Structures are given as structure tokens and as C-alpha cells.
Amino acid sequence: MKEFLKTHKIEIGIFAGALLLRLAMFFLLLAISSPTGFSLPFAGSDSTSYLDAARELGETGRFFDRGTGLPNSYEVPGYPLFLALIEKLGGGPLAAAIVQDIIAAASAVMVYKIGAMLAPGVGMLAALLFAIDPAGVFYSNFILTETLFIFLVLAAVWTLLAAASRSRALLAAGLSLGAAAMVRPVGEILLPGFVGALVILHFKEWRKIAVFSFIVVLGFFMVAGPWFLRNKLLFDRWELSSVASLQFAFAHAPLYYAYKNNVPAREAINIFHARFLAISPYGDEASLRNSPFMWQVAFEYLREDPVGFAKFHAIKTIPFFLSDGLREMAARADIIPNSMPSLGDLAMKRDFAGLRDALRENETALLLFAGGAAFWFLVNAFMLAGIVFGLGARGQHLALVLLSAFIVFATALVAGG
User: Fold this and answer.
1) Is the pTM of this model over 0.85?
2) Average pLDDT in the 265-284 region?
């Protein structure tokens, strides 16, 4: 035991520091929560929906939508299963938050191990930024998928890059990525990045690339494949979830329509909703049965100007890197008014008058926005510097830099847009 503590003292220190910060936040939030307002660990309807799905799983063993009685194809079962397991072991929502704090602390260690592949100092700096990230410290205490998803993706990255040529490790990387996709469907778009990393790691060794890629893809589909098959059998769709089609039909396409035609976003959404209802035989159902009709409504419009949409969507992703997360966290905790507009969005729209007025109204919001912006500027500066300098590397270092960049920008395009 002494030898383990001596050998892994850096990892233990990172884990302890990250965990203590999150537990301190947990007890602070618990102290200010109230039944009538902010209530730990609930963050709006998403938390309630995940808990409902978890209880349905625990009580009946089925993954059904309690509201409609239909098989649930909007969410994937990974996170509800995680919550159901905690409840099965006697814990409730607050226990889930503490478990997530432990998982987040383990993720900080994973960040260190991955960064240390470049240099020990890089690993320490990356782990420090991850451990003290205000949004991470805050949101790990809520019933939301991000904490578990991030851990599984980091585990997949570390396992892949540390695997060398070991088949079991490569399979484990695929299994972890598949589990991530079963927590958040966006995980499926990361698979090409992992295959690309193998191409860099074993450049020109095409037989190895083919075999190792097959092993990683096999691991991914060992976890996610049954869900693809379930949705094909129930809904005739080879999709993990209806989330993507919903986003395109009722967010991406309408927002581009609003931008091009200079109409309010809500009006544009209503237009696309009416178009959808005109062709759907299943009404407003947010299931994969409606997915073909949602894709149809979105792409009938977007194919008119795909290049323009691509530019618009890419630009609209920028707020992902300009988060005013501290301000948003304070609003969730009822420290400042929740009615305040997103300061990041105002800055992105160059509505400086609106930004000035919003900040003048609340001095606390001004301080939180400044602190959050400064932290994210630092994170983005280090990220861009790492990408630029890393492009001159080779082998494992180059694979790590490019895979990390792919994960960041791919998820940004989905979340930020």
C-alpha cells in the first residue's frame, strides 16, 4: 500500500483535490437549495426525465416513456441505467450526485494521464484546469449526463493511445466509446476520430490499421449495436435516438430560416412545426417513428443552400467557446435572476448595448461573466497553442493532438449549434 501511495502520489493528489472541490460545492448547493426554488440535484426537466426513465427501468425492466407508454427512443438508456443502479443499491438523487463527483475526480486523473503522454507538465496543467473548471465543479452535482459521458470518452482516449498493439486494450477503448454513446448519442460521431488516430499511430501499416480499427469498431458495436438493432426492429430506423432529427427540424433549420428571412426564432420554429405536422401520421410524438418526417422537413429547406447553412452553423458554434457558464450557474442556483439573457449570445450577436444593459442591472452577473470569460479565454488559449505546436509532432503525440481537437470541435458543432 505504501508503495502504491508513493508511486501514484500525483494521481492521488489530483483525485483528492478535484473531489474536495466538488464536495464543497455539493454542500454549498445543498445549503442554499429549497423546495420552492433551486433544488439540488435537479437541473430542470432533463433531470426529472432521466430519473423517470431510471425508475421505469428499475420497476419494470423496460425503457418506456411514462407519458406516452411507448418505447423510449428519444433518450438512450446508459445514464438512466446508471441512476437505476444507484437507486437499487439504496441511494437516491443526492447519492448519484456524490457518485458523479467521484467520477469527475477520476476524470481529472485521466486528463493528467492523457496530457502526460505529451509531457508531465502538460498533464499537470490540463488536470488543474479540469479540476477547477467552475462549470465542471458545479454541474457534476446535478442529474445530468455530462459527467459520466466525459469520463467514458476520456477512458476511451487513454485506453486507445496507451494500447500500443494490445487487442484487449483496443477492444476496451471501443467498449468505453460505445458506453459513452449510450449515455449521450453524440458519442457515435466520435468513432471516426478514433479510427483516424489509429491511422496516425500505425501510418502506412495498413494491415495493422485495418485489424486494430476493426477491434475498436467491434467494441463500440458490442455495446451500442443492440440498441441500433432494437430501434430498427421497433421503429425501422438505424439510429440511436431521435434527438438529432429533432434538433435539425426544430432548431438548426428554423434558426437558419429565421436568420435568412429576418423573422423571430419562435415564428420560424412554428413554421417548421406546421410543416412537420402536415406530413407526419404520428402527430407530435418525439420518437423515431417521426424521425423520417423530421429529417424531411429539415433537409427540404437546408438543401436549398447547404453552403450558407454550413457557414451559419459554424459561426453559431462560437458561443460554445465563449461560455458565460458562471453566470448561468448562478441563475440556476437563484443567486441572480434567471430571466437574464445569455451574455455569450449577446456578445456573439454584437449586441453590445444589450450586453451593457444586462450587466449594469446586476453587479454580481458582471463579476461572474468576467470571471467565466477569463477562465475560458485561458482554456481556449492553451487549447489552440497545443493544437498549433502539436501539429509538428509524430506518432502518439500527433494522434493525441488531432483526436483531442476532433472531439472538441465535433461536439462543439453539435452542442454549440
Assistant:
1) yes
2) 93
